[in-house]
Amino acid sequence: MEAHPTGLEAQQDLELLRRAREADDPQAFKELYRRHREPVLGFLSRLLGEPQAAEDVLQETFLRVHQHMDRHDLRQPFQPWLFRIARNLGINALRAKVKPGRATGGEATGAASTSDRVPRDAARSESRDAARAALEALPAETRALLIQRHGLGMKLEELAASWEVNERTIRTRLQAAVDQLTQALLAQRAGGVA
Amino acid sequence: MTSCEALAPLLVSRPLGLLEADQRDLLAAHLPGCAACQGFAQAVDRALEGAALPLSSGAGPAGEDPPGWAALAARIEAQRRVSELVTLECVYCHDRLLRGESVFCAACLAPHHADCFQGHGACSVPGCTETQVVRPATLGRPAAASPGGRVRWTVLAAVVGSALAVAALSPGEPGEVAPRAPIVMPPPTPVDADPQPAGSPPAAVASGGVFRLAPPASWLEGRVLAVRAELDPPLALISLGADDGVELRQRFWIHRGDQVVGQVQVEKVLRDSAGCRILSTAEGQAIEIGDGARLVVPDRYRIDCQNQDVQLLIRQLAEQAGLDIVLPPELQGRVSMNVEEVHPLRALHAIVRTVGEYELVEESDRLLRVVPRGAIAQQVTTRIVPLTRARPPAEDLRRLLEIALRQRADEEGLSSARLEYDLATHCFLITGPNPALRVIERLIRELEAQQDRAHQEPAQDPALPPIQPPAQDPAAPAQGAAPPAAPARDPALPEIWCVVVSVQGQVLISVGADDKVERGQRFEITRGQQVVGEVEVVEVERDSAVCRVLRAQQPLQPGDQGHLTAGPR
Asked: Are A135 and B76 in contact (CB < 8 Å)?
């Protein structure tokens, strides 16, 4: 399933959710899990920076969905609600742990530290890492918003539903995120990093 | 460069799809000729790579379990068991109420089925008319109703952990759900129609009798958490505590499935568990961890008799209820009664009072005595008065109470009453004749309320004017003396606060020699935040002091607060 579901897929999600909660159908819930596992895991991996932690939060997310699926309004799309839960749990997980040095992008860190690359590749990798560090340095909520917008391609309407605010507020928050990221990148460039 | 910096936010907005048409045109015109902005745009792209999702492997084949599903399914199943175990009782229909299907009154939090609340139109608790509900955070999907219908029982949250742990430790029965079958109880038993002991005079006209009815279902159900059979007496810990309404001396059936394996009696009530003495075990059985514990609900009785001899009727009822009773020979008379579903003790009280000036005294939980009412007044008993409003430790309250009792020592029985304060239980233990106990208990409640008001007034009465320096009030000189000017408080004075205990010409305050109070000290008296007068100590006792009024803007009252402001150090 794509990160951004089509209207038909969204309808199918709701039908699966309805079966899961009204008929207590485990197969329907499994299908929901199968369809949304990858996007949610990707989102959490980017947010948390640690695959194992992302797996843990993914499981907790779907457990919460199962516990509270009775409360979801079937007139509303499923995916924004799912990502709201995932985002909140992810941010909670980030707050719960003290990270002495935040990893700068999973495998990219490992690639940058590989000593057998040619110097030009290494320089490019360092440049990429530095740019990503600007993103990583943003507050967790801001990063989550950028990941949902850029990584998941969520529309403003879906973002608004996921964050439980109106579209104007989401646009304002996105603009604030843009400003923060711009300032971070400009500061890096002024420091000669990028 | 300034224009490039102004365009930087647009370069960040571009991959996010936030540009307006004119902004896109502006960038399109500027970017091809500006190397710096091209470099910045590349930096933005690199930064946002961190927000892009990794390449997805797709949803996976439909026939196979997706990765991580097995672990998730196991957790979901565990949660389902929890939701099956944690049940409540609907206040309206008194049926079993799973957490998942419960709603709670928004005012008093009484649990209801949603349809019960809707059907009733409001909260069904007497006196509560709330029409709104709140829903709990559910622990999982409620299980389907059991085939046998809803069974009226409750397993409270405290049992969940232990129940799951027990289930997990039981080989071959992982996560077994607690049995729900009601314990088999004896059927209603009519008492022998003519149970008179040999030799006793037959009732002249007697009909009907005492009938034990089927006991109501127990609403309190828990688990055995621990057993110490090697102790004397053997003890067991059950998963129900004060939170669940467990009280001292309550008895619980211990059962395994539908088989009773023993009975325990509560000896110590903790917040969410209770320590119990094991009273009995079934032959060849032992109480084990994980056994069910169900509150023993006293039998109810139907009494239907006409012109029955009172001694005979009382003996019948006591025998059926398993109570020992001592009757005075002068208790004579005949009783006719027809009552349904009555607790035996309540019935006995009613019978005894019917035939004359007698009262039923409960010597212990099993031994009863019928005594003439006049004798009760002289009977010394101990009453436990839990404090509900005073804050522990209630030493101040105890001192106040002792002072008040000394003042009223001439009243009947008060001088002989003994008073103890138990910090552990935050209770007063008062011992004395019953009339005195009633007076003391009322005094405790009054003093408690006064102290409570004294604590609350400063915060709850903002309308009162702020504390003012004591003003000269020529209209209120006491003892004929000119009102002295209120001196500035000497900072070297000890901080002594008191409460006015009584005002009868002179003022009795709640502090004394053991609080370093001395003659000549002056206390400023306040009510809330308002100064109402000043007193001077004229006589000091160990834990109280008598004062004369120096000035009083308002009549001083018990409960007013005092603060040492002047006098010998």
From this structure: no
